[in-house]
Structures are given as structure tokens and as C-alpha cells.
Amino acid sequence: MSTDAVNTEPVEVNPVNQVRSTIYQLLSSLFAKEIDHKTLHDLTSEQAQNFWAQLGSESAFKADVNILVAELATLNTDKALLELAADYCGLFLVGTKFSASPYAGLYLDNKPTENGDEPLLFGEQHQQMTQFLKQSQLQVQSEFPEPADHLAVILAYVAHLCIHSDEAVQLSFIEANLTNWLSRFVDKVTEVDNGNFYQALARLTLSWVKSDAEWLASELN
To answer: Which family does this protein fall into (predicted)?
Structure first.
């Protein structure tokens, strides 16, 4: 299960960090684009079912994993896929008050613009993430024309850090770029989403990030 937001190079790593990276990559891919037939096949394969079962064995993730698996099982017609794609578009692409923009800068940049509007895209957080990517010799894929502070890009970058950086670097990045705004994003998704899939995905992402940050902190103590 790979992400569609950032190009990364695979390397050999220990099993724990490989699993952590895979989870971040999966979450990234689901925020990066709508689910199509190929993605659905990957998410419902035997390997994926084992993965969901293992992830859902943790009590903190169980309820939302069960919702995601149940929702995926209903995507057995083109109409169902189109309806979920419409949910994705309405939530993450259109940028209205009824959407939940997945850009860190819109939650972290509290400085008003000259005319008092919401913070603009491609702002300070985008520039910062672009620098992180450059330092790691990564780049946002050309077919993903979104600001670099998109949640999918940030999650994909953490997946990269799981393999290429030590625990201190990982925790520092997560605290500075995810845990400080993710709950507000999840609240917005919950507020505006009429379906179940993306609410569950957002909650699972928050639960996973919090749990992973706690694990990293314990490893450093």
C-alpha cells in the first residue's frame, strides 16, 4: 500500500518501523485521492484484510477500523464508488465552509490576511514542508498538485521518517506538524461529513498519530 503524495525510496528497516511506515503510507494514500477500483481491490484483498484485522485488534482503533472495513464492503457498484468520490471532493477539494480543508497552514496560521480572510494556501506551512522534503531529497509527485502542507503529504513524510530518522526526529516532527492541528481537522470532518467513511478515517488517523507519538516518547525515556 503506497502513498500517492510523495515519492520515496524503499530501504531495509526493522519490522516495527516498517509497520509504522506502512500505516502512515496507507492513511496518506486515502487522503491523497478518491478511492478507485484499483485502490478498492488493494484495500479489500486478503493481505489487506489481515492488515485491518491486526490494526483493529488495538482497542483504540477497533471501532473506526470496523467502520472502514464495513464501508469498503459496500463499495461493490460504480454508483457506490462515485458517491464516496463525491464525499471526498466535497470534503477536501472544493474549499467551502461545508468542507474540511486538509492543509496544516489553515489551522496553524492564525495571522489574518490584509482583508481579514482565512489564511491563504501555499503559505508558511507549505514553504516549511517543501524545505523538509528538499532536505530529504523528496518531492511531491507531479500528479498531486496540492500545497505541501496537505495532510497526505505530511503523513507520507512521517512514513519516510519512520525508516530514515531516529525516534527523536520523528517525535519532534509529529508534534510540530501533526498533533498541533489534527484534532481541529477531525472536528471539522465530523461536523461537515454526511457519510461514515471519512469521519472514521479522520478519527483513526488522529488516534494512530497520538498513539504513535506516545510510543515514540516512551522509547526516548
So the answer is: Belongs to the TorD/DmsD family. TorD subfamily.
